[in-house]
Design a protein that fits this description.
It holds the Pfam family PhzC-PhzF. By secondary structure, the chain is an alpha+beta fold. It contains 7 helices and 18 strands. The longest helix is centred in the C-terminal third of the chain and has 15 residues.
Length: 269
């Protein structure tokens, strides 16, 4: 069974968000998928297999963290589309059947890949008691991101505050199903990004995610409304960091980035 490790939302190895990618003939039992994801021990491992050519999707796709299966994952979808394109396993746009419906990934000649994901519905919320202590900073506003994303999105005063966060991860797990997205406007948009974010997901076994495509389906509408533009670039300022180009199209959000394969080998067990 061939396995690849792909860094997503980056054009350089050892940055962005790593994902395991396995292209299969069919899905084995869930216990095996979980064991492989735990062994890979990256934020997500993606498993995909081809579907018959007469349906609404081309490939079935599932995502597992080391702790659980998730309903939506952007970076592992990007990584899977990258493997399909670079190995010739699929040419052109690919339609993935997932727990979040059919998601389309379109490769471009410049090496980028665009994902078409559902836009997260944002609902204003009161800043929960205790979240400021858990984050180490006082949020200006808070929003629920809906069932697909499952996070609490909080706006912080500035980029420096986001970069300086040192959260209590266990405490953050109390405030949403998956975790907390912290964001602020870019201090200097001339540096190539319009907003910054960091993502903390202790409830799915990831204290800090490196670059989170699904979170940008909430960040895109949040910042597009405030900045007055549908197309923006977000910097997820984790230690590995990565850029996500976002374009809001109503109930869909386009996420564009690059990926690079760093390891390829054989799963023997």
């Amino acid at each position: 069974m061939r396995i690849r490790i792909v860094d997503a939302f980056t054009d350089r190895p050892f940055s962005g968000n790593p994902a395991g990618v396995l292209l299969l003939d069919s899905f084995p039992d869930d216990a095996r998928l979980r064991n492989v994801a735990r062994e890979v021990n990256h934020p997500e491992t993606a498993f995909a297999h081809p579907l018959p050519g007469d349906g609404e999707a081309d490939w079935a796709l599932r995502w597992f963290t080391p702790a659980t299966e998730v309903a939506m994952c952007g970076h592992a979808t990007l990584a899977t589309a990258h493997v399909l394109a670079t190995t010739g396993a699929h040419n052109g746009p690919v339609r993935f059947a997932t727990l979040s419906g059919v998601l389309v990934a379109t490769p471009h000649q410049d090496g980028t890949i665009t994902l078409d994901f559902p836009t997260a519905p944002l609902t204003p919320a009161d800043v929960p008691d205790g979240v400021a202590d858990a984050l180490g900073a006082e949020p200006l506003t808070a929003f629920d991101t809906g069932p697909n994303v499952g996070d609490l999105l909080v706006e912080l005063p500035d980029e420096r505050t986001v970069l300086g966060l040192a959260p209590d991860f266990r405490a953050l797990g109390r405030y949403s199903r998956r975790g907390v997205i912290a964001t602020a406007r870019a201090q200097d948009p001339g540096r190539g990004h319009d907003y910054v974010s960091r993502c903390f997901f202790p409830n799915v076994g990831i204290d800090e995610d490196h670059v989170t495509g699904s979170a940008h389906t909430a960040l895109a509408p949040f910042w597009s409304e405030r900045l007055g533009r549908p197309a923006l670039t977000g910097l997820q300022a984790s230690p590995r960091a990565g850029l996500v180009r976002t374009e809001l199209r109503g109930d869909r959000t386009l996420l564009t980035g690059r990926a690079v394969t760093v390891i390829e080998g054989e799963l023997l067990a």
